[in-house]
Amino acid sequence: AELPPGLSILEAREVGPRAASIEGSILGFRYAVQLDEETDVADLDDRVARFLQSEEFRIHKHAKGGDRSVDARPYVSQLQRTGERTLHVTLLFGPRGTIKPGELVAALLG
User: What is the pTM of this model?
Assistant: First the structure.
């Protein structure tokens, strides 16, 4: 099997047949988000800082039952600008699910 371009396996280990479900062991996901050349990044540092200082950050989440507004703050454990057009985002995963990095970045860039 082949992975899509840009996707690589960082670590793997054997899981026994009686092990807990894989979904139950996932704590979160790390993303490197590359912003395209058309995206205005002039105030990106300020937007990231405001997000990190906020207690609540509403985004529109697309779900099976329709769109809804959710507080993204509890789902984000890390948000950092690591290059001119690169953000590193760590999203937490739990019983209530998670959010998509695209939804977070869209709201962040407003």
Answer: 0.79
DSSP-derived 3-state class of residue 92: strand
Residue 26: the pLDDT is 84
pLDDT band at 17 (very low <50, low <70, confident <90, very high): confident
Residues 49-76 as b or e (16 or more Cβ within 10 Å = b)? eebeeeeebebebeeeeeeeebebeebb
How far apart CA 39 and CA 94 sit, in angstroms, is 31
Q: Enter the tokens of residue 35.
A: 């912003």
Note whether 23 and 29 are within 8 A (CB): no
